[in-house]
Amino acid sequence: MTYAKPAFRHPDARTNDVGCTRRDYEGGLSTLCAGCGHDSISAAIIDACFELSIEPHRVAKLSGIGCSSKTPAYFLSGSHSFNSVHGRMPSVATGANVANRDLIYIGVSGDGDTASIGMGQFAHVMRRNLNMTYIVENNGCYGLTKGQDSATMDTDSVSKKGDINPYMPIDLVRVGIEVGATFVGRSFSGDKEQLVPLIKAAISHRGFALLDIISPCVTFNNHQGSTKSYASFREHNEAMPVDFVPRREAITTSYDAGVVHEVCMHDGSVLRLQKVNEEYDIEDPQSALQAIAHHAKQERILTGLLYINRNSEELHDVLQTATKPLNTMSQRELCPGSRFLDSINAGLR
Amino acid sequence: MKPTDLRDPEYFHKVVDCQYACPAHTPVPEYIRLIAQERYDDAYMVNWESNVFPGILGRTCDRPCEPACRRGRVEEEPVAICRLKRVAADNKDSIIDRLPKIPQRKNGKKIALIGGGPASLTVARDLAPLGYQLDLYDDQPAGGGFMRSQIPSFRLPPTVLDEEVDYILDMGVHTHFKTYVDSLKSVLDKGYDAVFVGTGAPRGSNLDIPGREESSKHIHVGIEWLGSVAFEHIHKIGKRVLVLGGGNTAMDCCRTARRLGGEDVKVVVRSEFAKMKASPWEIEDAQAEDIPIINNHVPKEFVHENGKLLGMKFDQVEVVYDASGKRTLVPTGEEIFFEADEVLIAIGQDNAFPWVERNLGIEFGKWDMPQVDESTFQSTNPKVFFGGDAAFGPENIITAVAHGHQAAVSIDLFLSGKSVRQRPAPGVNLISQKMGVHEWSYDNLVTIDLRQKVPHVDKVVALKDRKVEVELGFDIDTAYREAERCLNCDVQTVFDGAKCIECDGCTDICPTDCINFIDNSEEPVMRRSLRAPANIETQDLYVSERLVQTDRVMVKDENVCLHCGLCAERCPTGAWDMQRFLYSVTKAG
Fold first, then answer.
1. Which residues of A touch B503 (CB under 8 A)?
2. What is the CATH classification number for the domain harbouring A191?
3. What is the SS3 assignment for B159?
4. What sign for the dihedral angle of Cα B187, B193, B194, B199?
5. Which of A250, B73, B136, B477 has its CA 20 to 30 A from that of B10?
6. Would an 8 Å CB–CB cutoff place B500 in contact with chain A?
7. Tens-place pLDDT, residues A251-274
């Protein structure tokens, strides 16, 4: 006998502006290992979409291959979904986004899907600043194939079998800042207080938003000696709290003025960030890279919103594409006929 | 908040809402599970140990458990607990060999039980196996008290009553039926070591309005009339009958009248419908037998012609609530007349102790009621104990049973020379269900299942004979479907913070948002800051010790936990464990 999640909900469950409860944003029952960080990230995406009052059918969720890439089945069952080829989610997302710019694109990938087989596509989708949220569920290992080290595994981290990783890790946030992502954050599956606002901010960001989320693998990478276990990550986490204030709400929380930084987002919502120090300028890529490196040297992992570029041009701006989705256009608009084709061809001669 | 102390047996007891609400604390989910497993004998005995009269209560109980049922908080209607109890009684084999053995050698202590109703019988049930000699006195020709004289046969067949009364009387109880005790002193003088008074609230209230005296031949006090019907002194009633009162006795009177020849039977109630004391299902059953309930009518006068009753006059009233919520019945000025051949007065019943001399050391207090200790049931004369309706006024059978158990504990302690205040602790058993959700859960999906209806016998057949039982009881298939609606609240979610790695798996999977990991604070703050607000303060918050990794605490709102076990299924470390909790009330001996 398998089990299923009962349809009952709390009688006093809150509803959002579009009349949905949190449970309306759920998906199928997860088949991942009990305690998997990925399930927490799914729950955080559910919370974020619920709190943003996003209608599920306005979302397209895309993924590649891996434990992480199974998870779109476990949230937003009312959304569009595409489970693509290993490491090739960015090109599918690009195609979908070019065709329908009005949807909210949430890509879910893993450390293997992104930092190994998908590294090429990952770099180029960031370079093009595609308007999407790209979530990496980063557990440092290949859980589906018995837990081999992945490219994000830290040097000297000990595998479950006892082997010490001799290689340098790829730090996805540093790659992201270098290559052109315009919103870069790092978080932890076990810290929803930071993660949920960060996802909300990423969704609200216009341009490519990268979230590298450390997500412990309870089965293969949650032991002593692993740098990506629940306990180890909590111990080394230097969390910068994030508060996301939607456009319609007045700001009520008060912070210690010196370290709080307010970022007005493209859609009018406000991000309130509590930075580790005053010198850190999250709108300056060099400052961000320095802060990350500085903390890494002290064996601290800086989490929160690390870098943002609010005034970038996303792919549609660069390509000067049509302002509305292709599916809202008539056949005449989409296929204007041979006369237009001839004129294009003439222009290429 | 302080961490929840799981060593306190009352914590998890309270989570089993039905059991906690039951005066006798019958382990409801335990016997429902046994019914689902078709172990009817076992289910019956779980009941019998606790409430003594499963077959009787399965038909007549006031069901304090059902409004408490958790399913009523997540769905519309509670589990039909009461009628499932009847299923156990209806489908059991002989359980005679499971009854306690009665010692041949008595312990030398003699106890008198005055009144043969549920309270006295429960005392007998608990004390007979301990070797006490028990003498039971009752003015009726058979045991059962009000269960026999006041509950009509169409609700409780005499065979069912006899069977369960006899289980107890056959334990060697010396019965003195048709013996009205008119003096407690004379009983004490017989040298009893203790006396238990379970005489109920035997006096039906009268209605002293004009015409009452003159037409008294046609006016009856409800409980007396029901008794006369039960003992076959009365066989018929006039065609037009008015029943006064809005309680369960009124419902029994009107339905009995329908069976004795009453064709035009009306129930007339002073107050509005919503304030009627009768159980909703009793009202429904009366209405189904073409008996109108007429509310907001205050009796004014019995109208008669030379002693022959013609009918009754009522003042129509309006219910008015003032700012403080106090209710008054304001006459509208309209006077209503209903024709009637006979009237049954069922407007309440009172205690009466004319037979208790006032110089026996028994203090009497307000409303001329004896002063009885609420936990020991001892009066101010240490030898004399009270229970059932006789102790604190009219309640119901299950309350009388609960009193009986406690009084038996007291009598046993008292006669063993121990303090009646030092009561043994309840029995508690908490067992891990290690095999997981499939060991105890009925179904792999807790889902919305509407309450099953109990089938009734055809109305024409029912109204012909007052002895035809109206409710047919659940058949086995329906009973199974109803049993499956039970949420297993006795399978507890037990949290071990030392094992928790704070992965949030349980929080994310919980379908009703019960589980939270937050910073500790004061209870009112906590209740507001949970994932779903914990507004029902009678439902506890389960708070863990401080957790190692983040210093937060786990807080679980018990209110709408489905006991579905998904938290335990999703827990990678076994920090959540589903454990079956069995709580049994302290028994004598």
1. 35-37, 40, 189-190, 216, 218, 230
2. 3.40.50.970
3. helix
4. negative
5. B73
6. no
7. 555 555 556 888 888 888 998 888
Domain of A64 in residue numbering reads as 22-319
Domains identified in chain A, total number: 1
Percentage of chain B with pLDDT > 90? 88
Domain spans of chain B, in order of start: 99-202+351-415, 204-347
Euclidean distance between CA atoms B39 and B31, whole angstroms: 9
Residue B398 CB contacts under 8 Å (≥ 6 apart), including other chains? B22, B23, B24, B51, B57, B61, B62, B64
Residue A325 lies in a domain: no
| CA count, 13 A, side-chain hemisphere, B12 | 28
Q: Label residue B589 by pLDDT band (50, 70, 90).
A: confident
A-chain residues within 8 Å CB-CB of B70? none
Of B513, B532, B569, the CB nearest to A3: B569
Answer whether B448 sits within 8 Å of A14, measured CB to CB. Answer: no
Cβ atoms of A315 and A131 closer than 8 Å: yes
What is the secondary structure of A191-226 as a DSSP string? Answer: -HHHHHHHHHHHHHSSSEEEEEEE---TTTS-STT-
The whole-model pTM stands at 0.89
A84 burial type by CB count under 10 A (0-12 exposed, 13-18 middle, 19+ buried)? buried
Binning pLDDT at 50, 70 and 90, where does residue B534 land?
A: very high
Q: Does B571 touch chain A (CB under 8 A)?
A: yes
Q: At what angle do helices B28-36 and B81-91 cross, to 10 degrees?
A: 50
Q: Residue A235 domain-assigned?
A: yes
ipTM above 0.85 for this complex: yes
Q: How far is the C-alpha of B117 from the C-alpha of B142, rounded, in Å? A: 10
Instruction: Name the pLDDT band for B323 (thresholds 50, 70, 90).
Output: confident
Same topology between domain B99-202+351-415 and domain B204-347: yes
Question: What whole-number distance in Å separates Cα of residue B315 and Cα of residue B60?
Answer: 34
| Interface test mutation site (partner A, options B73, B485, B504, B514, max chain A beta carbons within 10 A) | B504
- The answer for residues whose C-beta is within 8 angstroms of residue B449's C-beta and 6 or more apart is B75, B481, B484, B485
| Contacts with A22 from chain B: Cβ below 8 Å | 513
CB A154 within 8 A of CB A227: yes
Look at residue A138 and give its three-state secondary structure: strand
User: Is B73 touching A (CB cutoff 8 A)?
Assistant: yes
Q: Does residue A279 register a pLDDT over 90?
A: no
Q: Is residue A134 part of a domain?
A: yes
Q: Distance of alpha carbon A345 from its chain centroid, rounded?
A: 40
Return d(Cα B555, Cα B547) in angstroms, integer.
11
The answer to whether the CB of A186 falls within 8 A of the CB of A304 is yes
Do residues B119 and B201 make contact, with C-beta atoms less than 8 angstroms apart?
A: no
CATH number of B99-202+351-415: 3.50.50.60
B511 contacts A5? CB cut-off 8 A? yes
At residue B572, does pLDDT exceed 80? Answer: yes
Of A5, A33, A230, Cβ closest to residue B501: A230
**Residue B327: strand, helix, or coil:** strand
A16 found inside a domain: no
Q: Considering only A164-168, A265-269, B112-116, B412-416, which range has the smallest mean pLDDT?
A: A265-269
A286: CB partners within 8 A, 6+ apart: none
Q: What is the pLDDT of residues A3-38, one digit of tens each?
A: 788 888 898 888 999 999 999 999 999 999 999 999
In sequence order, the β-bridge partners of residue B557 are B541
Which CATH code for domain B204-347?
A: 3.50.50.60
Q: Which of A6, A8, A230 sits opposite B502 (nearest CB)?
A: A230
Say if residues B247 and B278 touch (Cβ distance below 8 Å).
Answer: yes
CB contact under 8 A, B75 and A8: yes
